[in-house]
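step=encode ok
step=design start
structure_in=
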């Protein structure tokens, strides 16, 4: 939104207030908190509450997301070791989200936009980590990564 200064007839940009700059990060946090609250209340270890992973069902292979709901359930209940056992990568993702969200809020409070422009090396590294995690958890010696 722009306002016109009557004295100089210049257009000056209007700076949004701190609450309005925090609206989107707060909405994202509310959505994530609601999802975690639901998974924390509805136990994924009980059969019939959530759909079965189609890759696991038809091939017997664990996808990178297998155990993610059990991991979130354990994480909500404060059992970090069980969360790591169910899906270590998802548990690290929860912590990464918390860190990135905190940086986002700090930028919003200071009135600076958050620019996330990952370099190709980072994207390829994360993809390689995901691939290695998936392969290792499906090999006999990777049994400690099974959900």
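sequence_out=
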């Amino acid at each position: 939104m722009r306002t016109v200064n009557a004295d100089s007839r210049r257009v000056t940009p209007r700076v949004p207030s701190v609450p309005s700059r925090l609206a989107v990060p707060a909405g994202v946090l509310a959505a994530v908190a609601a999802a975690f609250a639901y998974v924390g209340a509805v136990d994924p270890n009980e059969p019939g509450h959530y759909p079965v992973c189609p890759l696991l069902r038809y091939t017997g292979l664990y996808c990178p997301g297998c155990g993610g709901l059990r991991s979130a359930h354990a994480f909500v209940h404060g059992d970090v070791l069980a969360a790591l056992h169910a899906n270590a990568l998802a548990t690290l993702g929860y912590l990464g989200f918390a860190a990135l969200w905190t940086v986002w809020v700090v930028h919003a409070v200071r009135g600076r936009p958050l620019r996330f422009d990952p370099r190709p090396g980072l994207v390829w590294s994360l993809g390689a980590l995901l691939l290695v995690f998936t392969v290792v958890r499906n090999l006999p010696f990777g049994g400690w990564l099974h959900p």
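step=design ok
step=annotate ok -> The chain has seven helices and two strands.
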